[in-house]
Write a structure and sequence with these properties.
This protein is of the alpha+beta class. The chain is built from 13 helices and 15 strands. The protein is globular and about 70 Å long.
Length: 370
Amino acid sequence: MIEVKQVTKLREFIRFPWKVYKSDPNWVPPLLMERTEFLDPKKNPFFDHAEVAHFMAYENGVAQGRISAIINHAHNVFHEDIIGFFGMFECMENYPAAEALLNAARNFVKSKGMDTFRGPVNLSTNDDCGLLIDSFDQPAQIMMTYNPSYYIKFFEQFGLQKSKDLLAYRIDVPKEAPERLKRGAELITKRGGFTVRCANMKDFKGEVARIKEIYNDAWERNWGFIPMTDREFDHLGAQLKQILDPDFLFIAEKNGEPIGFSLVIPNINEALQKIKNGRLLPFGLITLLLNTRSGAIKSLRVITLGLKKNYRSFGIDAVFYYKCFETAMRKNYKWAEMSWILEDNMAMNRPLENMGAKVYKRYRLYDKTI
């Protein structure tokens, strides 16, 4: 018999994925310290505008799965929706347990007046989200999801239906930057009268403020997009500072005004994958440092590219791509992932395909009418 309990003490909840993935070589264990802080309402500013309930399923007293039910008030206000979300879903290959968990999360958001059940999001679309639906033979890039293939069957059996697919592109770093891209970047920069520089880590606070200015101007009512609050933005900046390579944070300026930015980060999942127990101490930190400082990381993730509305036709994105190629070649990276991108965002998909990038992973968000 399956029993579902709402939990507030999250030690077992946080550690449960190790049970699901103990034999999966492609799973990248999270850091326990980071997951604990992420789910702490006192430390994660997401909880300033959200309600979250966590559930675990047990069969004969043995844990079988977990899930979080999420009411993201910021999303519903911004999009004028009445949507409740689910996330943090992990489950053994036990459909009755999965069904009980999904029902518990659905019933929670229904009790809050929601009319649609959507997920998985962990905890919002500003975090990792979507169910991996292919390429299960490859580990996830940093801040992207990974899951067993049987989750697809569980979700579909429960009656969840595709809402939107999110794409991840892969591109190899060439030995030389494409000449056409190089010439185009030089011409665009000269004609546009703007400059592109790397981040100044001595003025990191100021750089975050400039990026926030661009981000705020670039807000769009894109499907699933949620503007971050100042607290969320500053919190994310503090987190990324720990893994950021300033040579991969590009800022475009015109007459002293910040007009665009591009953020690329090393895929530290390549190092985290070697810390099997999720603990930095006593030996995990040494492992992490050895694998980040020795040049062992060979891939990058292009996380975001933002342009102020008045400068979107300048071709600045092409300049960012060229700068990224140039720096990746110099630093001996082998390939990069661009993710995630909405399947119907042709303004992003076409340029990537024109550069030779290929879709190599898909992530799916599901809906169910309550």
